[in-house]
Amino acid sequence: MAKITCTNNLTQIGLAIHNYHDALLAFPRYRRCDTTSGLYDTNCYSLTSAAIWTGPKEIWWAPYDNRPTPSTPTTAQGIPNPDNTYNNGGYPAGLLWPFLEGNTKVFNCPAGVDPATGIAYQCSYGMNYASGGPNGKSLLQLTNGNGTSNILIVWEHGKTPGCADSTHAATTLNPRGPWPFPDTTNPKTHYPDQRHTGVFNALYCDGHTSAFTPNNLMTSLFLATGNNPIFP
Hints:
By secondary structure, the protein is an alpha/beta fold. It is built from two helices and nine strands; from the N terminus they run H-E-E-E-E-E-H-E-E-E-E.
């Protein structure tokens, strides 16, 4: 049942992404960073950790409270704000919120819990933000590249709702690749195949879903074109 619910969630997210594209002519980015401090760029290329909160203008694709403690990947303060602010103690509802009719259940897989604590993650899914991936790209660019049916956009994930190699800033000389696979984190959070008896669910840019094992992954699946990450 959890696997079916999770697949249905991803299907709904895929429809929302395409509706977002229809409205804005590009796929959403995994988040927009707050540039007020002068330390970060809008597209978050300079970040060296996925957990950095860049400020009150930060917005993710999904509802997510990235503020420092007491907020954690499993604990949000307040409720999602549709205006994407932190007003009234809440937090941004995310870029896809208006395209999902404010349905928070879509972002939560029944099996999307932190194995260490048994507490549900704020968001059960992560969006691909590898350099040269589908973030901010048009359908035409993806179709003319590796093809929308061959590019991953969102999959089951733990902690933050984004996934790529977040250990360094993304630059021309050192673009941000996908998180290394197979996933050696313990417990697995980037490709959590423990959720559904050895597999995790993933969404492609054309809207279809598939169950994956880490052995199925290859770098080209994360990229709009080619086999090597290219900044930006």
